[in-house]
Specification:
By secondary structure, the chain is α/β, with parallel strands linked by helices. The chain has one domain: Alpha-Beta Complex (2-enoyl-CoA Hydratase, Chain A, domain 1), CATH 3.90.226.10. It is about 50% helix and about 20% strand. The protein has 11 helices and 11 strands. It has a 6-stranded mixed beta sheet with strand order 1-2-4-6-8-11, with helices on both faces. The two termini are about 25 Å apart.
Length: about 250
């Protein structure tokens, strides 16, 4: 349970999220994930990272129960900083990151996937940001990398989910496969990239980040500022309490 990694002989490092029952990641987990991603990218024998999850869904975002049972704002600050660290680690990883998405991908899950280089998803995968229903904001930066601007706003305001097939239509999901074929499909794609000269691919990753029109680090931290405003006003606490009680 937690964050784990394994390395194949083909240059692929598999990093797995495993926090039963729904992969709601605690504060420590976000930092652990960031550490694993950074370490994998620095390994000379890692040419590609596959980010995957065990269980019913890829990621349900932050652990709201942890935030609610912690006095003061330490858990909230930790979750926000941890998410920022993990999202950045995906984006800044020295090698390409392939996200293999199963089941639900919500909140922080969208932050991870939106910063990945390639997305492969199972037919049962759905993506969404329930933030407005939880009295928070965030990861619109990353949803905007998956869908066009007006659709992003609709999904953000309504907290509706979008399917893997719909994202495939928009080109942000590369391939949609049956759930039992997900790991194999993501690994096959990763191995195709890993077989190339890693020196070239690492330069390509850095170059692509350098020409990216979206400054993902700054824009996400800007969003988080409004989450703190909502928390200080008491709006967020009431929304989280209603969600947990409901």
């Amino acid at each position: 349970m937690g964050i784990s990694s394994s390395h194949t002989g083909s240059g692929v490092t598999m990093i797995t999220i495993d926090y039963p029952p729904v992969n709601a990641v605690p504060v420590r987990g976000w930092f652990d994930l960031a550490d694993e991603l950074v370490a994998a990218g620095r390994r000379p024998d890692t040419h590609v990272v596959v980010l995957r999850a065990e269980g019913r869904g890829f990621c349900a975002g932050v652990d709201i129960k942890e935030i609610q049972r912690t006095e003061g704002f330490d858990a909230l600050i930790g979750a926000n900083r941890g998410c920022a660290a993990a999202f950045s680690a995906v984006y800044d990883c020295e090698v390409p990151v392939v996200a293999a998405v199963n089941g639900f991908c919500l909140g922080g899950g969208v932050g991870l996937v939106g910063n990945a280089d390639i997305v492969v998803a199972a037919t049962d995968a759905t993506f969404g940001l329930p933030e407005v229903d939880r009295g928070a904001l965030g990861a619109a930066t990353h949803l905007a990398r998956l869908v066009p601007p007006h659709l992003m706003r609709t999904l953000y305001y309504t907290a509706r989910r979008i399917s893997a097939e719909q994202l495939h239509h928009h080109g942000s999901v590369y391939e949609v496969v049956p759930p039992d074929k997900l790991d194999a499909a993501a690994t096959a794609l990763a191995e195709e990239i890993a077989a190339k000269d890693t020196r070239v691919i690492r330069c390509a990753k850095e170059a692509l980040n350098g020409i990216d029109p979206q400054h993902v680090h700054r824009s996400y931290r800007y969003e988080q500022g409004f989450t703190f405003e909502l928390n200080l006003s008491g709006v967020s606490d009431a929304a989280r309490r209603a969600f947990l009680e409901g």
